[in-house]
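Researcher: Batch entry, complex prediction.
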Amino acid sequence: MKKLLEKLKTKENLEKIVVLTGSGISAESGISTFRDNDGLWNNYNIEDVATYSGFAKDPEMVWKFYDQRRQEIQNTKPNKGHYALFDLETHLQKKNKEFLLFTQNVDGLHYMAGNRNIYELHGNLWDAFCINCKKKRRLNDVPLRVLPPKCESCKNLMRPDVVWFGEQLPSSVLDKGFESMDCDILMVIGTSLLVYPVAYFPFLALKNKSLIIEINTEKTHASDYFSFVKGKAGEVLPEIINNLKEIL
Ligand code: BJW
Ligand code: ZN
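Model: Structure tokens for the complex:
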């Protein structure tokens, strides 16, 4: 941390700050990550619940998995890490500088914290769409009354609007992500950087000579290339962002 704060003091003319978050930022809100010891992928088989073929085999079981996660998330709130990012966006807006927040999270907590310039790379747990006519629906009922939910228009099966393994990310969001890596600072928060194509983002920013601040409770495979700060997002982000605001 000390090293990073020293480095920040030498920076000037910073105009564009980009943030990439993963499930670690929501851990302090009580939401499970995927690959930590108590993570979701230790308790569920990815093939069964996070691929289209798993869904096609047993839609009811997959919907139960997502409905249970929505039930867990409905009682959670953003934490200090989320609010620090809201503070940063508000500050940059006042200064007429650019702020973009890319998240792999599907929990919607960045919206709840107040951030607005958000790009959801892996979808959102509260949205569903019809596998036939693609009509979208916001899922307000928790738990859902009918499982699996059916399309109001064509009566076909709905699916969660999340990105499963083997599926393309929404192209407008992914393209925006790739083009935004020409930033002055990229903050990479609470992600293992094990899932592609998002895991390429920081390496693109590195190529573009951005300062990359990685915040994580553990080093990742990429930490040695970045300015790594070890700690919980909710604990270290407020301090980093307060220091950043002084130079922005
Ligand atoms: C804290 C903390 C605290 C804890 N503070 N930190 C090579 C190149 C390109 C692609 C591939 C490739 N090899 C394989 C692929 C394909 C695949 C992939 O990447 N697989 C890898 C596992 C190897 N990728 C895909 O399939 C993607 N699509 C794609 O590539 O399309 C192109 C294509 C399609 C078809 C044919 C050919 C090409 C889609 C990926 C979709 C991922 N979906 C999920 C599920 C979403 C829905 C749901 O939630 O159920 O997204 S998987 C899961 O992982 C979820 C997350 O968004 C994602 C990332 O996880 P995250 O957030 O990083 O969590 P963890 O648990 O891994 O890490 C948490 C971190 O937080 C840890 O580091 C902790 O230390 C830290 N932490 N507490 C700070 N308090
Ligand atoms: Zn339909």
